[in-house]
Amino acid sequence: MTIEPVTKRGEALRLPRARVVPLSAPPATYTTAVERYLTGAGIAKSSARIYRISLTTWGWMFAGEPAPTGPARRGAKPPVFPVAAIDDPALPETLAELAAVRADEMDADTVNRELSIARKAIGWWQRQGWIECDPTIGIERRPAPPDRTKALAGNQIAALWRLDVGLREKTFWKLLYESAGRADEVLCLNVEDLYPADKRGKITAKGGAIEWIHWHSGTAQLLPRLIARRTRGPLFLTGRKAPSGTATLDVCPETGRARLSYRRAEEIFQENTRLLANPLAAAEDVKGLDGWTLHRLRHSALTHDAEVGTSTPMLLARSRHASVRSLERYARPGVDAVARHVAGRDPAARGRG
Predict the structure, then answer these.
(1) Could you report the per-residue pLDDT of 234-285, keeping only the tens digit for each?
(2) CA-CA 20 to 30 A from 174: which of 136, 158, 201, 312?
């Protein structure tokens, strides 16, 4: 045990400080520690994908390497090292430098979310007695000014539906917009979770609660073609057989294909919306530009609902937020609504009427 000085009557006394006794043997690798955290900490299945991606990113940085970004990330194998390496005294300085570089490359919301997840995992590992230190102390969250343009305009949504993409993407994007669902939750849908006649389905929300999402006729028309004759298993599948080691719940028992991952779904959406997001860019220059994020479909759906006068209780039910304050980011009128308001107050326009 270690000793700490305590001052009493001007004299320094040394009293023992208890150490955390490991609740179980430390895992052999960081990757195993991540999986034990995701299961042991009760992380909801809908959130586990995002947590795993974030912790994999930080795994490279915990190993002293920059995390790969963009296409280089796909197929990149995370470094193998023991979770106890996080206690390396030299790590905090290296980690701060790597985190600063990543913060310059990524948006603030992503960087802050990853940092928050890393700190939650570190705290859990500390409580297990596997590590003692938190090397992220001193790394600050990045300021994230609100983006007032996240809600897509009506003509942008219409252009999205006109894109020449596969049935899976058409159905997924339409379902996200019509249900205002979170992408990670919708990707966790199984065929048996759907109630097509009622245009609704059961999802596992944040915290593990089972809740409903509802959709319109657009999704209802596409779903039967996507499902074909399947009766169970993941709704949205990859185009090839699942690799060995894929979790059973993420493999279709009828086709052997794997559940579509959030990361791949986001990549596909970004790739297909680059020209829509950058309408003035030349086709030959668009490859290096960013497209839209999947979250903008949820944001747009809720904003458009608010613009047509949907009540606050209904918006809360649609968004599945617990507080009215959480709705503030969606309740701002979008660009189309503001344009109509300004046009309606134009004296010249009134004169022509």
Answers:
(1) 999 999 999 988 889 999 999 999 999 998 999 999 999 999 988 887 777 7
(2) 312
